[in-house]
Amino acid sequence: MAFDPHPSVYLGRPCYHGLAQTPPCSSVVWTSERYSEAVVSSMAAALRRVLQAGGFERVVFFGYSGGGTVAVLLAPRFVETTHLITIAANLDIDAWADLHGYSRLVGSLNPARHPPLPARIRQRHYVGGQDRVVPKDVVVRGPIDPDTVVVIPSYDHTCCWETLWPAVLAEVDQAGSGR
C-alpha cells in the first residue's frame, strides 16, 4: 500500500489485529472458519460502508496468501470491482490442506467450488515457482482464468514479493482501472 498513491484500505478479517478476545470471536474464526460466509459477509459489509462513505465507484482487490483467498471471495460481490490481483493465494483450500496433511477448513468457503469470476474483472494471479506453501497447482484450481497466472520462478511464498509491487501497480494503472 505504501507504493500506491491511490486511496487504499487495509481490510482485515474479523477477530484479527488484536480483536481475538472480543465476542463473538473464537478460535474457529481464525482457524477452520477463516473463510466462512460470516467472515466474508462481515468484510463485504465493512467495505461497502467504506465505498459509500468515500463515494468510490471502482475497487481493485489486492491479496497476499490468505488475503488473496478472501479477495477472490469478495471481488465478485462488488459490481465496482475492476481488478483482482493475488499473490501466493490459496485458491483451493481443500487441495492446500490435503497437500500439507492439515485438517480441512470445515465451515470455510472454498474458492475452487465457486463459479468462474465474472469476465468484467481483470485478473492477475502471481505464484512463486519455489512456493511450497501454496504451489501453482493449488492456485490454478480456483475460479480463475488459468491464463492470468504468472509464475515468478525464483520466488517462494515469502521471498521478494515487495520487489514486484511497482510493476503490479503500473500494470493496473495501464489497464485503466480509473482508481
Plain-language structure description:
The protein is of the alpha/beta class and 179 residues long. The protein has a domain at 57-174: 3-Layer(aba) Sandwich (Rossmann fold), CATH 3.40.50. Helices cover 32% and strands 13% of the residues. The protein is built from 6 helices and 4 strands, in the order H-H-E-H-E-H-E-H-E-H. It has helices spanning 27-30, 37-54, 66-74, 93-100, 136-139, 161-174, and strands at residues 59-64, 81-87, 122-128, 149-152. The chain has a 4-stranded parallel sheet with strand order 1-2-3-4, sandwiched between helices. The radius of gyration is 16 Å and the shape is globular.
Mean pLDDT: 89
Give me the CATH architecture of the domain at 57-174, please. Answer: 3-Layer(aba) Sandwich
Report helical residue fraction. Answer: 25-40%
According to CATH, the fold-level topology of the domain at 57-174 is Rossmann fold
Low-pLDDT segments, ≥5 res = none
Determine the number of helices (DSSP H or I, runs of at least 4 residues): 6
Return the CATH class of the domain at 57-174.
Answer: Alpha Beta
- In one word, what is the shape? globular
What is the string of SSEs from the N terminus onward?
A: HHEHEHEHEH
The largest sheet, given as strand count, sense and whether it forms a barrel, is:
4 strands, parallel
Rg estimate, integer Å: 16 Å
